[in-house]
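Record type: monomer structure entry
Structure origin: computed from sequence
Chain ID: A
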Amino acid sequence: MAKNTVFPHTWTLNCAGRLLVIRPPLVMGIINITTDSFYAGSRHSQIDDILFTTERMLNDGATLIDLGAQSTRPGAKSLSADEELQRLLPALEALTHRFPQAFFSVDTYYARVARYAVEAGAALINDISAGQMDTDMIPTVATLGVPYVIMHMQGTPATMQIDPRYEDVTKEILEFFIQKISQCRKAGIHDLIIDPGFGFGKTITHNYQLLHHLHVFQVTGLPLLVGLSRKSMIYRVLQSSPEEALNGTTALHMLALEQGAAILRVHDVREAVEVIKLWQYYHEC
């Protein structure tokens, strides 16, 4: 058996006293408690539906479930923290009661939402703005004892796709992460995950340049989360739709794994788990 050098790291993250081990790569299933997320199949509003979908994702092999209570698609209208909590907390409380051993991530850029979410049982905070949309977020997460996912985004969801520009997209995002990692460490956050933010303030060309050089981010020594699932960088190239983008998603997941992705954030858990199993077997032979 040849040694797998593509995924050489093992990360152990402290999720409020529970340990999350990343090796081999893990799958994070997406649950959107919204009515306007870009992919209709990810939208859920009823508790029974959320519980059923989560159970299916866990049975299909998801290690993490990411809950988002407001859409962050391009041009999306922002909800207040109170509106987000009204959507989020009933679902999160029901989920942590039904699945106490599962790891639930909450997708929010509000410090107040993050605090209430962790009190309700969330194990990670996933912030598309890396603390830039709420300056209280980083110091708040530092007090919560959970891992923090920091994502790169140029602009805000309302403005990010108007005219994104970079001289060198990979270099500029790496510099952003180096600065943000230092800020988080100084604040006292121990466990970090980085997400380059495919589709967040990037053209289709930027996205593929970023995917081509994804291995560069391994220099940070941190686990790399990749969110490619059913995004416009797939369906616009294929001239299709989010509903028809599963096959393209699977193809790009394999490329991301080859570049060092540690967590795949997906709508379709079973298919992503199969990609990881095949990728792992390929490198073990």
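Annotation 1: Residues 39 and 204 are 18 Å apart (CA to CA).
Annotation 2: The longest strand covers residues 26-32.
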